[in-house]
Amino acid sequence: MHLTVISSLDAPCRQQACQDAAAANPGAVVVLHDLLENGVVIRRISSQSGLLERAETRLEHGCLSCTVRLDLVPTIERLLERGETQAIIGLPPAVSAEAAIGALRRGLSRPVTIDSAVLACAPDTLEDHIWDHHTLFESGFTPVPEDQRTAGEFLIGELSFNDTVLLAEVDLFPADPALRVRGVQLVRELAPHADVVENAGLIRPGRHDYQDALSRTVPGSVRIPASSSISPFTTVTHRAQRPLHPERFRHALASLAEGCCWLRGRLWIAAAPQCRIAIQGIGPRVWLENTGPWLADQDAGAAPDPLNHVDAHLDWHPEHGDRGSVLAATGEGMDPGEIAQLLSACELTDAEMEAGFAGLTDPFQLDPAPS
């Protein structure tokens, strides 16, 4: 069976995308899931001839992952047994394609082909969603109060993982032409790997590469556009080979993140020198995460994470190994010189390198077992 998985932030974009995809693929069945309050899942299956199935299921634990694991997987299993050869999956709003595809790969009794992972997105609203500080629940995109993600976090995750962005223009909310152009430019800067298409008929099957998609979402991974384009948005990348002084970096962080739609990378911080620290900033939120030891600090017999392995070898230094800082900032009016100056000023001086890392405080509390 060939599957096209469509994710979205909101139901109108998802509905339009699935209708367009069904019109472009008349032999496919369309599977829609919606998660309501109190754990109620509505499942609808339709074909060109009309609605084939509508069912409601109450999950004991009404959450996004349960919706995928406990209802989508057995639904696709039944369609396989029925002999269906093509399906379009419309995920509930704010459910990630990565979660759905991962569950299908693990849970189905036989393999399927994921033709494409598609984000249905209204480009004129993208920038506002990225800068919105409200959670998905507070904004009404999910009925799950425990979901603390913002709309920007969901969208950046989908733009990283998915291979195609379908530009939606919902009739209920006519787009401002200038905002739409600006939004498309931002999509292309944030997802340089993706096909950006105006209608579902232009979705190319065979675009999905699961391992490549996962590698783009690894915390600390940096993927940037291969070439510049005529756009108000740019991506600036800077590397620092020496460890960063924790206090100087803490003071510089606000300036580094200011105005960035998306800040990401990995950091070598002197107060936690053996820890590969991932940084992620999406709109108003910035956070740091300890992702474990650098490859150079792992035991010789330890199996390296293959998703981190490529970056480690590409950045390998004869003295420091894969240790080092790589920071990428995407936004409007990014100044490469200013970012380079801010990050370079955080590097340890010769005297600090000679003194070693002892005595440095960890303001971020990144190392659970400091030496």
Short structural summary:
The chain has 371 residues and is of the alpha/beta class. It contains 11 helices and 13 strands.
Secondary structure elements and pairings:
Layout: E1 2-8, H1 11-24, E2 29-35, E3 40-47, E4 50-58, H2 64-82, E5 86-90, H3 97-107, E6 113-121, H4 123-131, H5 151-161, E7 164-167, H6 177-190, E8 195-197, H7 210-217, E9 233-240, H8 246-257, E10 260-267, E11 275-282, E12 285-293, H9 306-314, E13 325-332, H10 336-344, H11 350-355
Parallel strand pairs: 1-5, 1-6, 2-5, 6-7, 7-8
Antiparallel strand pairs: 2-3, 3-4, 9-13, 10-11, 10-13, 11-12
Helix pairs in contact: 2-3, 4-5, 4-6
Mind explaining what this structure looks like?
The protein is α/β, with parallel strands linked by helices and 371 residues long. 33% of the residues lie in helices and 25% in strands. The protein contains 11 helices and 13 strands. The strands form 2 sheets. It has an 8-stranded mixed beta sheet with strand order 4-3-2-5-1-6-7-8, with helices on both faces. Strands 9-13-10-11-12 form a 5-stranded antiparallel beta sheet, sandwiched between helices. A hairpin with a 2-residue loop joins strand 11 and strand 12. Helix 4 (123-131) packs across helix 5 (151-161) and helix 4 packs across helix 6 (177-190). The longest helix is centred in the N-terminal third of the chain and has 19 residues, at 64-82. The chain is globular and about 75 Å long. The termini are far apart. The mean pLDDT is 90.
